[in-house]
Amino acid sequence: MENMELKNFWEQIKAELIEVLPESAHPWIYPLEVSGYDKGILTVVTGQMMGRDLLRKNHYHQIVDVIKKISKNENADFVIIYDEKAAKNLKKENEKIQKKVLEGKLKEQAMENLSSMQSASNLNLKYKFENFVVGKSNEFAYKVTMAVAENPAKKYNPLFIYGNSGLGKTHLMQAIGHYTIFHNPKLKVKYTKTEDYVNDFISNSRNSKDTIENMSKFNKKYTNIDIILIDDIQFIESKNKTMSQMQHTFDSLYNKGKQIVITSDRVPKDIPTLTAALCSRFEMGLMVELTPPDLDTRIEIIRKLAADNDLKYTEDALKYIAMNFEKNVRELEGAFNKVSAYAEITGKALDINLAREVLKCKETDSISPDKIAEVTAEYFDVDVNDIKGTARGQKVSLARHIAIYLAREITGKSFVSIAEYYNKKHTTIMFAHDKIKKELSLKRDLAEAVREIKQVLKVI
What residues does 261 pair with on adjacent strands? Predict the structure, then answer.
């Protein structure tokens, strides 16, 4: 018989054997492999010595009858051989199966932990690393948080993530929790909002006969863990007793080699009334900033939202939304959800016309920082390359600052994206913008220049 023909022949026999033999014999039948069929004798091999002996002893005649039936050969017979190579292969296969079973149990345990953690701490199951869109503005923060998740307390401890609201701080923080619970379920993870920590402390520290016991439970709750995730630490300001308790929690965890992750909307030194002791502790590890995503990343974020919800769309619709909502991810997602909901309810196509109809954004997408720089340079009679470059003349510097101010005010683009255009740090761009904004009400000639440039750009 040819190999394929022999294989089909054996599959027919095996299927029939499963039908006629008792279930106790099935575990010995499944691993059998056909070796040959010659002169009516079927040869099979097994890696199970006990299986070979039991089949020979208890089911020889039944097996022969099935072979005779399928082959239509009354003189058919069979030989079963124990093979060491097959035994090794079978052992490896069993080890793989056992590993999968163990992994399945661990995953099941992890999912139970995730569910429990979500219930206890309001952890959002969608805030995982695989759901985070990585771009230039957040790539470093993503890699750092992933490193912490993979090796907690080994380095970057504490990890302090800061940035404006809606940029993904909570997402990355909670992703550490999800990753840890799923990949290392033996570790205890606790996520808490600072407001909840404050309220919990106040509730347990009130004078009563149970205060000592309550505070003991409070301390165990926040220190008998391996990773603590504290969100929005800026809300602890001005709460002196809570800050003292937070210092105790921090020291207890840090001294035991536990991972501490904190988020805030600003760096520690910019949080009013934060104690010097806490400030120094928060700054002793690694501080990572999240800035607004660039256009490509914003488009990718809403493209992923569309894919997750199986929505059809046009690329120009995504670009329109991304160009008009760039301050933070939360605002961007809200705009997309509004358009997609309208498309679903009305049955209209999710295209740029619908996006314009629903969002009613100012039509400033056609005015670029480049166009603004050109008009401003022409107004002040300077070279546009000087505005975009490093020239320091008084007229050029003023023109540059006004161009930066108008780029922010007219297009609504982030300081980061404007900084990319001018090849400067975003803090430099912020300074230029704020300088012109403050001086507009004080200098009439400056206000007049800005008004006339806007007229040329047709935005007033």
Answer: 159, 229
